[in-house]
Amino acid sequence: MQNTSSTIAPAQRLARLEDAGTDFPFYNGAPVAISGPQWLLVLAAVVVAYLLLVWPIPWPGGVLSPLIPALLFPLIPLVALAQVAPGHWRAIFGKVGGRELRLMVGFALLNIVISVSVGVVVSLLVDVSSNAAGGLLSGMDTAARIAFFGKTIPQLFGEELVTILPFLALLQLLSSRFGAGRKGAIIGAWVISSVLFGLIHLPTYDWNLVQCIVVIGSARMVLTLPWILTKNIWVSTGAHIINDWLLFGVGLLGAGLVGKA
User: Fold this and answer.
1) What is the C-alpha to C-alpha distance for residues 167 and 220, in angstroms, rounded to an integer?
2) Model pTM?
3) Three-state DSSP class for residue 4
4) Residues 45, 79: contact at Cβ < 8 Å?
5) pLDDT digit string (tens) for 95-133?
6) Where are the domains of the chain?
7) Within 13 Å of residue 187, how many CA atoms lie on the same side as its CB?
8) What is the dihedral of CA 238, 242, 244, 245, to 10 degrees?
9) Closest C-alpha among 37, 14, 3 to residue 181
10) Residue 29: how many CA atoms within 13 Å on its side-chain side?
């Protein structure tokens, strides 16, 4: 269910970056208003879900134990959103058809090109760290690899919520409290939520601030584009999953070829 609007002035739209006739939910009271304290509750749920994901809790379940925090990661914020917007939490979702699937693939490929390019430039200027998950994946057996890729589906959906929900809270804050126009509020929410996304990856990349803000932040900005375009979190989630699966798959293939050499 998406929030639609045909009354937004063209000057307040991000030109071709937004589908005509659509608008973001909640920030302007449609389909329901969310107050500041309610947004704080949602954001607190985002933080709790993130901590449960990264905290070294001995979850039960053997090889499937990582699925528990990965499932809680999107579930907790969604429950919080459903509490503050009963009956309207689905406003961040939309249909998935042929166009949406093409957008998922297109934005995933675009993000790989841009993030790799930015990463190469940054690596020439400062030391960068690799994602340890790639090395761990190459050392897993087939069952563990299947569990790993399966775990990434809810986890990456959770990463989209970690971005989109703060984006919407910031959009409302910037437009209502600070008086920013719609276009300015969107750009501000886009940039700030992307920087925050980069910062939560600091433990993953050995606390490399430049790498997380510039490389991960720029990748996040690209992956937020399908959300801005469609207002459909399924599209940005699909692009994120395809992006990561391609990168991990290529890395795994490369490790296999090196091992055979």
Assistant:
1) 12
2) 0.92
3) strand
4) yes
5) 999 999 999 999 999 999 999 999 999 999 999 888 777
6) 97-260
7) 9
8) 130
9) 14
10) 1
